[in-house]
């Protein structure tokens, strides 16, 4: 027989926990849900747009009655649980409905705090919490004229804006002199007040309510200074209080909320709690992202998987008032140990402030232009070192290391619906907005799954997150600091790399078993990553797992849209000979290669080769002296050079020879992502060395070394690493840099985002300042190269991996 | 319809042994009507699908096999090996072909299962 799970509370946190549980263990429990409200579960954070009339109530329903039926969940709508008998494991509702449980989940949410002033119980005095409150406000707006909102916080201002939209005359009373003082500093608060005043909201700041006056119904509000305000409707929005009365009455330990552990269990281990009603490590949360995180962890334990932990959340806020953009995250006021970077442009209505602790972001407030909010928030959670671009921080992500593409990010809220957001998959703004609304999407991953936006190159991720924020309502983002590598595991890239070494894990199955993979054999994301991590951790020892490689690396050629492949032989440093060119021409003709193309990396590409032909063509190439160019791999690609001092009248050093030496040293190495090099013979930089992962610009006195550049989706110019005197040094620094990148970057992270994540200062310290460390890194690189410089093409031409290239059978 | 009728008459074709397909991998059977991908999962089950991703026709046989799914090499759609259906929220299917194993010998039928137009 199934165990019985009873859920008290039919809100967002409770139902999210049930949804997560159904994903993990769909048949474990017979589930019963009690909800005090007479509706199925809806998206509470979208009540504001319902109040303004921008949305209908049915649009914000999350699960309809059919969903409960489909999953065999007994739903008691409109029944308030009034008693829990923990000895008999029984819950009772006000109408007498009772249900026994094996496990109980409390998700009772919160209550609006009602000021204890005379008149607080008069008809027309309400909170702003549920759909009934919204209905009361909408009805009042039809019949009456004057509304007073007590509380100038997030919820109060959204209520004020909604009531204004419904045609009421609205006054907001606020106790202190800054609106939303828990999220905003004074400057941003003032701008917000000005914008709302321009819309017609009246404010009484530093004002305290003494009494609510009225006989049959509210008629006004009297302030402590004696002023009386006319009011037919009073909305109290002075905060929320976790609703734990029920838990407390049954003897469960409560303080300011129901106290829970990192597994979301209360002091009674059969009883779990999630959402606004809980107190975790001393904190209660009122935003949706932390609640979802709690729900996920709670479901993990209800399903008896037992490995997830909730360790608290960092949150950000966005005000959901159409036309007013406001973002706040973390500690925005700072203290003696912090610095502030501020930009204010009153005429444009833009204000941005970032609070820095050392070189890390501790908080941010933005008003008027919040496009980069998600970016700052991400860096804050990741603890990113921003020293390298500190002076450009406030210009936003679009201006970072960018050569002339500064305005590529148009203001998202000004974009028309048919504006393309995701260029790779051709997804427009309107499509994303529609999917977020109709399919109830909350996370970036969900938007990726449903629309494909941001699922390819990822350069539009910031825009999609901004859309999520404005559409789904601000506090959408995942709250965890740590990002799991993929849905198969809860571990991050860094944790996995550490565990592989520390626990001497030497095969993919060993990693999956030891680190409790959730899937039997991973997915197309984690297997290639693990294969790479094992390869770099155990050079010469680890046996490469071909089935965990993407097809291009498995077949040592680039798959094309029609299923044929391209072949790019290595041309050392981009220098070739008539003899080589002649053999290439002959081979291309012999195999009737449909297209021959010169690549951007100074090589020759044969396109349209059938898979079965690959080993044959490679055999001929190998006889002519060519090896694989690895143009298909997360590997060393090409070293682009100019002719340098050999021919050029401006050349300062022999850039071609250095390029060839670099390529001979580095070819064959697997790297987290593709890795390109360039060597220019003088600062005119004809080899474009300053947009390569490792670039050398020759100067009269030696060699300037540059790192972390790339062309591609988002052009990034290199950072200057250092200057060296000899080609030998250039080779050693290159080997050390490559090895550091191989050992520490995340799989599929190019050098540019890696350096932005760890900071240029760190890379300099490891590669430039620490001489002994540099030599050790270079030694490790050379050691691992011993095992990677066998030409994969020659081996396959001689029959290795034959099954990869021929059909199993030909029929008919 | 004619080809289907013709195929239904024919019998099981032996295509090779289990160890000819890499574990968590696939091989191709070339036929006059196009390629069929034959997959092998970690627990040695074998599935056969038309070697065309329902998205843009990518060769599924070249994808990474995980669990009972394959990720298309072109745009990373995932397809269920047992049903031929694209993993939600994507929509579409690749036709399935019956497979039979006797000892370690694999037999394939060229008559596709019904229900998927993507033959």
UniProtKB/TrEMBL annotation, chain A:
Any one of the GO BP annotations: nitrate assimilation
BFD-like [2Fe-2S]-binding domain residues: 421-469, 485-534
GO MF, one example: nitrite reductase activity
Cofactor binding, per record: Binds 1 siroheme per subunit.
Annotated Gene3D superfamilies: 3.30.390.30, BFD-like [2Fe-2S]-binding domain, FAD/NAD(P)-binding domain, Sulfite Reductase Hemoprotein, domain 1
Needed cofactors: siroheme; [2Fe-2S] cluster; [4Fe-4S] cluster; FAD
Residues binding [4Fe-4S] cluster, per UniProt: 642, 648, 682, 686
Binding site for siroheme: 686
Residues annotated as domain Nitrite/Sulfite reductase ferredoxin-like: 560-622
Domain FAD/NAD(P)-binding, residue spans: 4-280
Family annotation (InterPro entries): BFD-like_2Fe2S-bd_dom, BFD-like_2Fe2S-bd_dom_sf, FAD/NAD-bd_sf, FAD/NAD-binding_dom, FAD/NAD-linked_Rdtase_dimer_sf, NasD-like, NiRdtase/SiRdtase_haem-b_fer, Nit/Sulf_reduc_fer-like_dom_sf
Pathway: Nitrogen metabolism; nitrate reduction (assimilation)
Domain spans labelled Nitrite/sulphite reductase 4Fe-4S: 633-774
Domain NADH-rubredoxin oxidoreductase C-terminal: 316-383
Keywords: 2Fe-2S, 4Fe-4S, FAD, Flavoprotein, Heme, Iron, Iron-sulfur, Metal-binding, Nitrate assimilation, Oxidoreductase
PANTHER family noted in UniProt: NITRITE REDUCTASE (NADH) LARGE SUBUNIT
Family as reported in the entry's similarity comment: Belongs to the nitrite and sulfite reductase 4Fe-4S domain family.
Protein name as annotated: Nitrite reductase large subunit
